[in-house]
Design goal:
158 residues, alpha+beta, Small Protein B, Chain: A, two-stranded antiparallel ribbon, 4 helices, 35% strand, SsrA-bd_prot_CS, SsrA-binding protein
Amino acid sequence: MAKKKPKQPSNVIVQNKKARHDFFIETTFEAGMVLKGWEIKSLREGKVQLVDSHVFLKNGEAWLLNAIITPLPTASTHFVTEPNRYRKLLLNKRELSKIIASVNQKGHTCVCTKIYWKDHLVKCEIALAKGKASHDKRQTEKERDWNREKSRVLHKNQ
């Protein structure tokens, strides 16, 4: 009997599954995040939500809005913790210019799809996306169901 490989720990802290449901993802970028110490501790515990988060561009800088990082109860009491504060995203000028040009087109937006660890740093994957209509969402559901059924049939026949 073959030995199973030990499962590698995932570096992903949180994924925004709603973004893949609501948008067509076109291009992704990796951005660093400016965080405070209590936010890093909360991220280690997985206390973050990306459901309604999006990227806001202002004065040639990218900011992450509505990403909720819940402070731990053991956080120190001598500083104010803001779970909904704006968090600056670190991108180079070339990436920022691509994002700004794309967001200025009608129907395009920039959303955060996941937050993950890269070595000891926290990275944010942001994506240029175009909104889906309700019939597009239904078509995606049908394709997913068909692929699932197809894989079941193929697996059964083998």
